[in-house]
TrEMBL record:
It comes from the Bacteria. This is Kinase. Keywords: Kinase, Transferase. InterPro entries: P-loop_NTPase, PRK/URK. Pfam families: PRK (PF00485). One of its GO terms (molecular function) is kinase activity. The keyword Cell wall biogenesis/degradation does not apply. Residues 22-157 form the Phosphoribulokinase/uridine kinase domain. The lineage of its organism: Bacteria, Bacillati, Bacillota, Bacilli, Bacillales.
Length: 197
């Protein structure tokens, strides 16, 4: 993993004074995105590079908007898990121009949101990590995109035993949405760098 981080740091655009560079870390569920993002964050912090990291799963919508909507389960996961247009207009479009973001952050236990304010330095790296980041509505906002490729079996084995027991949910919700994403967006081809995990 250390070699992969060095490779990434060498390839991403240089940070110039007064600019922000947006790095996307994309990959399917349990591919290792969050772990890798945190390693990159640590590597940049050791070089005293200002940065901010965002996890796209912090901004999912409440359950009633993404479950039992009369749509197919895969459609709910891909299209309704996030308010895609709201994030485009109020998150992605503002990353380079706003000094402060006000983001409704989701709490899984209470199924509610609490607005959190994030102050962005004028000069910084911004890391956005999560699934489906290269969807058509969002893909133009990144300066550099990393895709972490990991086989489905390996990703599935990283789930808890309890989560693995609901195989129908994987088949009907998660895997169909992943297949749709791969077919429609071809994220490995679009990415600037692909890492195998």
């Amino acid at each position: 993993m250390e070699d992969s981080i060095l490779t990434l740091v060498e390839k991403i655009p240089q940070l110039e004074n007064g600019n922000r560079v947006i790095l996307g870390i994309d990959g399917l569920s349990r591919s290792g995105k969050t772990t890798f993002a945190n390693k990159v964050k640590q590597a940049l912090q050791e070089k005293n590079v200002p940065l901010q990291i965002f996890h796209i799963d912090d901004y999912i919508v409440e359950r009633k908007r993404r479950y039992n909507t009369e749509n197919e389960e895969w459609f709910e996961y891909y299209n309704l898990q996030w308010d895609v247009e709201w994030l485009k207009n109020n998150f992605f479009q503002k990353l380079k121009i706003s000094n402060e973001l006000h983001l409704p952050t989701y709490d899984d236990h209470s199924d509610t949101h609490r607005v959190k304010s994030v102050t962005l330095p004028k000069t910084c790296f911004i890391i956005v990590e999560g699934v489906f980041l290269q969807r058509s509505e969002w893909k133009r906002f990144y300066d550099f995109m990393l895709y972490i490729d990991c086989p489905r079996e390996k990703r599935f084995n990283r789930e808890s035993v309890g989560t693995q027991s609901n195989m129908e949910k994987f088949k009907n919700r998660y895997w169909k949405a992943e297949d749709y994403y791969i077919k429609t967006e071809d994220p490995m081809k679009q990415a600037d760098l692909v890492l195998r995990n």
